[in-house]
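Dear support,

We are seeing what looks like truncated structure output for some complexes. This example has two components. We would appreciate it if you could run it in full and send us the complete token output so we can diff it against ours.
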Amino acid sequence: MAAVTETLETVDALTGSKYKYGFETNIAMDEFPKGLDEDIVRLISAKKNEPEWMLAWRLKAYAMWRKMEEPDWARIKHPPIDYENLYYYAAPSGPAPKSLDEVDPDLLNMYEKLGIPLNERAALAGVAVDAVFDSVSVATTFRKTLAESGVIFCPISEAVREHPELVKKYLGSVVPVGDNFFAALNSAVFSDGSFVFIPKGVRCPMELSTYFRINARNTGQFERTLIIAEEGASVSYLEGCTAPMRDENQLHAAVVELVALDDAKIKYSTVQNWYPGDADGKGGIYNFVTKRGACRGSRSKISWTQVETGSAITWKYPSCILQGEGSVGEFYSVALTHNYQQADTGTKMIHIGKNTTSTIISKGISAGHSNNTYRGLVKIMPGASGARNFTQCDSLLIGNDCGAHTVPYIESRNPSAKVEHEATTSKIAEDQLFYCRSRGLSEEDAVGLIVNGFCKDVLKELPMEFAVEAQKLLAVSLEGSVG
Amino acid sequence: MLVIENLSARIEDKEILRGVDLVVPDGEIHAIMGPNGAGKSTLSYVLSGREGYEVTGGSVTYNGQDLLAMEPEERAAAGVFLAFQYPVELPGVGNANFIRTALNAVRRARGEAELDAVAFLKLARAAIKDLSMPDDMLKRNVNVGFSGGEKKRNEVLQMALLQPGLAILDETDSGLDIDALKIVADGVNALRSEKFSALVITHYQRLLDHIVPDRVHVLAAGRIVRSGGPELALELEAHGYAGLEAA
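Here is the complete output from our reference environment:
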């Protein structure tokens, strides 16, 4: 426990939240009570030294959440979540391991297969001390370079204090506090997350990644991310890490909001590999995430790319509101489920402005006893003359006990709009496997190769270094799925 | 050396091979001919380890190793290569990536160093030139959108790069025009050496004009019913397979 507290403190010191006002920094994590009420919301807010307006915002969200019900339309099954039996702030997860010797060998084995360098493996496994010190110079170097070009990249808790005018203007403007059950919950209790602001005309000089944001590891289950690209600005943001973070928390409910003004471009890439539960479907993360981008400006563009291989349940629909004339929305997704994992994921493309275009490429891979659903909405509003959408939804089945489902909704209220939808479902054929094996590939390598081929159209959208790790991840995630 | 002794095999309840005896010494190319349904493709799949073919008796050794006890990929590592009658499409998988992955898997299994992308491309480009194949063969996805002839040539390209000790060509000549046939034959002939042997399965004599076999065997009703020199193929061409089963 001491190690956890120490890590949190070091992390907070690094990222600037210095507990200046000394609010109960000595409270051990496990003394935070379970359950959620107004006092917990106040406690979280106070712990982060938030201004009054932020607290009011949280309390409003909390009041709305109390009146809402968990959505039940997704094709997922799980025992009821007892919201009174959860921790809502930096839930305790036991003492952090002090060295790699204390880390689960299976986990290390997987890191090795993913080709992650040894010191990074330690960091990912949550080995406290070295990880933090390794990252100090990295974190500060990046922030300096970014600051020189006017880019703000910081924890959202810091942004609330340092850039209140920006946060007030944009937070909740894309995903309102009462948008849905999980978004309301997140708005009430979000622990931390990233804030990115790219000023007018600036092309962000580097890929931004939570990977380098060391405190991201400890932000717990309720991250909140807000990215704003002003006129003509562009940014590529990478989220998550390609290695599994063993997380004891059962519920993960994040909210991500993107705002693109005229001619701005935001590319948001995710590789999600949270703990999927064991081979019998025990444990694993329930991942209920709301991600939405608003293309407010003309010719703005928001592109979501996701590779989802982890979590026991994935409930996630990164969406684009195409408001600006000629704005562009893209969604490239690979969702892989194995064992007893369940994924219900897709996107919403809301065409409001004239000549808006959207592209959806979704690749679902199901193995074991898993269920994988693509759920998507393409909505053309009356004013969206000349709107175009192209959707391609492909499902690949491995074995006989899994399921693939495609649920596309198309609503067009403008006769000039053009909407295309293509869908395929296929199985990895025995002759494909045999062909590969007769050339010397092991069965697992053959599956990896075939699956990566299936996902190629999506993987090529990922930044290079991410794509390589994502390819390995797909192969590793499918181990034991054949034979 | 490939030694097949009294090999029997079936698919589900259907007995296909009924006691095949065959020896292919290193350095030799043997042709297997026979009517449809004789078990020619079954023999090639049993030798390369395809699932669904149950060996009910007999043995197969290659260079002293018990082939039947090995997984398909282990057989590949041991030097066995099957050129498919119907090469399989792998959407999204680049041909160069596929062949390099296979080559490196085989090299790893043999204790040889893996080839990096640059070294591999150099090798592959040279092979493509030797086989008079179009340059884009490496860039395209494995067999996707390939014509019948291109698919067969792709098999030969893989064979040239994987350098097997024993190649089994399962009706590689079917559906080929005369130019493609020559390319395929040149590919096999280029591999001829004291350490290389091949089983060429074919319906027709014409391939054997280009790949001259050391021995010709006739497979009928699951058995080798006749064996002879290259002249046997000419005889079959003239008189057909009728009456062979009784022989």
